[in-house]
Amino acid sequence: MALRNILVVSLGGIIGSLLRWLISLPTHENGRPGGTLIVNFIGAGILIYALNYFQAHPNPRWWWRPAIASGFCGGFTTYSAFAVQIQGYLAENEYGAATLYVLVSLIGTYVVMTVISLIYKRATR
């Protein structure tokens, strides 16, 4: 693995992680998943847009894919916070809230990715 790849993934991850942290600050104190939902939806949209772009443009700049997909989106989105928030709901016997959060997260992410893919495909015709 080339050092330059490590550096661009790291830089993308730093930017993504800092942005996730900044977005989650307003919702962190109440313990609710608003910040996690927002970053995961935005991150899924960015990732599917980038993947569509990379598929349509097989030779983008060498650093775009590792910096955006693995670095930024990997640092920006957060499965661990998703899992911790579900555990929190279950620990408080809030089974309905846990189920709703899982469904909104999974279905919402799918909807975001589908809509972004359709927008990308229509815009690039």
TrEMBL record:
Membrane topology: Multi-pass membrane protein
Subcellular location: Cell membrane
Record carries keyword Amino-acid biosynthesis: no
Keyword terms of this UniProt record: Cell membrane, Membrane, Transmembrane, Transmembrane helix
One GO molecular-function entry: fluoride transmembrane transporter activity
Transmembrane parts of this sequence: 7-23, 35-54, 66-86, 98-120
Gene Ontology CC: one annotated term: plasma membrane
Keyword Membrane: yes
Catalytic activity, reaction form: fluoride(in) = fluoride(out)
Record HAMAP family: FluC
Family assignment from sequence similarity: Belongs to the fluoride channel Fluc/FEX (TC 1.A.43) family.
Protein name: Unannotated protein
The organism of origin for this protein: freshwater metagenome
